[in-house]
Design brief:
mainly alpha, 6 helices
Length: 168
């Protein structure tokens, strides 16, 4: 006789109950390695008699700008959340000047020559001098090709550096 084929369904895992699978992604928790956030502090200056001076704002004993509460920032800078009106902005512009970096104009020729003042250029300059002065022993003429090649490399290097620096 032939055995009848019986299909079987998967049953519980051996040794216990079926584990529920949670498809929700697990939230990663990161440990804080000693970086404690400082609590918000108040400025250690008399808010009734403040004068707007940059030196006071840089003094961490008086004002710690990293942890100060926003109300004290507004009080120290003597502004509101809406900002400054035109009259006060013009007064401060006259008092402090425009908000831009000072720029010294440099002589372009000296700036170009400054790109030849570094150790790599010194080695190349020495090689050019050796090529022109010391390589003509035995009655041979100076080695102009090497000299011109080295000097042209120095000039190209300086020109590229000068162009990049002027464009910055």
């Amino acid at each position: 006789m032939a055995d009848p084929k019986v299909e079987k369904e998967a049953g519980p895992a051996p040794g216990g109950e079926i584990e529920q699978q949670d498809n929700a992604p697990k939230k990663r928790e990161y440990k804080d390695f000693g970086e404690e956030k400082e609590k918000a502090t108040h400025a250690k200056v008399d808010m009734n008699q403040i004068e707007l001076k940059a030196e006071d704002l840089y003094d961490k004993e008086k004002v710690d700008l990293e942890t100060i509460v926003i109300e004290d920032v507004f009080a120290l800078l003597q502004v509101t959340e809406e900002g400054l009106d035109d009259e006060e902005a013009n007064r401060r512009l006259g008092l402090f000047g425009p908000n831009k970096l000072e720029h010294e104009e440099q002589n372009p020729f000296l700036q170009f020559l400054s790109f030849m003042w570094n150790p790599l250029s010194w080695v190349m300059e020495a090689a050019a001098i050796v090529a022109i002065a010391l390589s003509n022993g035995g009655g041979r003429p100076p080695d102009w090709q090497d000299f011109v090649g080295i000097v042209s490399l120095l000039l190209v290097n300086s020109a590229i550096g000068f162009y990049e620096e002027r464009g910055a």
